[in-house]
Amino acid sequence: MVIRYHIMSDFTLNILGCGSATPSLRHLPACQVIDYRGNLMMVDCGEGAQLSMRRMGLKFSRLGHIFISHLHGDHCLGLPGLLSTLSLQQKGGAVTVHTFAEGAELFSRMMDFFCRDRTFSLKFNILDPKKRQVALETAGITVESFPLSHRVPCVGFLFREKPKPRHLRGDMAKFYEIPVSQLQAIRGGADFVTPDGRVVPNSHLTTAADPSVSYAYCSDTVFNPALADVVRGVDLLYHEATYADDCAHKARERFHSTASEAARIASAAEVHRLLLGHFSKAYNNESRHLAEARAIFPATDIANEGLRLNL
Fold first, then answer.
1. Mean pLDDT for back-to-back runs of 10 residues, the chain (311 residues)
2. d(Cα 279, Cα 300) in Å, to the nearest integer?
3. Total structural domains in the chain?
4. Residues near 167 by Cβ (< 8 Å), separated by ≥ 6?
5. Which of these three, 191, 207, 223, is where a domain ends?
6. Do 59 and 146 share a structural domain?
7. Within this chain, do residues 47 and 178 fall inside the same structural domain, yes or no?
8. Do 197 and 87 share a structural domain?
9. Same domain, residue pair 222 and 181
10. Which of 1, 50, 63, 169 has a Cα at 20 to 30 A from 23?
11. Parallel, antiparallel, or unpaired: how do β-strands 133-137 and 214-218 relate?
């Protein structure tokens, strides 16, 4: 018998917007929401984020952290409207915006002007775009920022679930009459010492823990092979693919990537899955992006508004 301790919610990625700088009838500006055990974390906040949250059934009351990759409008101009909506919805508690010092100053002034009487505490966590750093750490997950190569200071985000406890074998716990007070330590890997001094190895008492989940967000960036080491082995990599190969020259000029370049990063990093996004309005569909990426890295999919992925 194995006792499994299940968490009510999983690690779920929700795509609210996956277009590039100019909105189109097909795509909204960059915005994602990660639902981790019922707690929502937003990554970038393009215009219309609050409406997209409603459409996807995401609760404003659960949103606690917003991570801004850089200060281009398509990644952050939805923030004042979203924060105002949170206050109108009587959200309590705190909301922490993870951004650069310039962003904190800018959005703090805007919110003091447009939404002075907030129902929640607005906090800012200052990121350094030039180095890797832990932006957030909770009991179950860490969020790390890392530099990207764009026309302005820009960072990506790496979400890593912490190791999960091992599964306790109920039959062995009963056989050895293990006190309840020691069960947590044993799920954490400890051996059990019987009253007469015998050591029972943890491997006899538990089975392997469920695998932890990891997710990396890379937008916006020019092709940079060094990223492979940063995102190595993640379960899901979201990498910008503003252009297909027909516009590779524009990608280089504007510090963006093509779909095939994103696939090269995924392949070199040996990630499990690749999700392309941040598409230029110049394309009527992303079939070319998908074909060019899958020729290099078959486990590639296309982002779209309303997409929900359970990792």
1. 44 97 92 97 97 97 98 97 96 97 97 93 98 97 98 98 92 91 92 92 92 95 98 98 97 97 98 98 97 98 97 90
2. 15
3. 2
4. 2, 3, 4, 5, 187, 206, 207, 208, 209, 210
5. 207
6. yes
7. no
8. no
9. no
10. 63
11. unpaired
Q: Which two tokens stand for residue 225?
A: 């092979």
CA dihedral for 104, 107, 110, 115, sign (positive or negative): negative
Residues 262 and 303 occupy one common structural domain:
yes
pLDDT at 10: 84
133 plus 178 within the same structural domain:
no
List all residues 6 or more positions away from 253 whose beta carbon is below 8 Å from its beta carbon: none
Candidates 10, 35, 44, 74; catalytic one: 74
CA distance 142 to 133: 10
301 is catalytic: no
Residue 228 shares a structural domain with residue 283: yes
Task: Report pLDDT for 4.
Answer: 38
Of the residues 153, 187, 207, which one is the last residue of a structural domain? 207
Instruction: Please answer whether residues 165 and 151 qualify as being in contact, where contact means their C-beta atoms are separated by less than 8 angstroms.
Output: no
Residue 91: domain span: 2-164+210-310
- Contact between 86 and 59 under an 8 Å Cβ cutoff? The reply is no
Query: What is the CATH classification number for the domain harbouring 292?
Result: 3.60.15.10
83 and 189 fall within a common domain = no
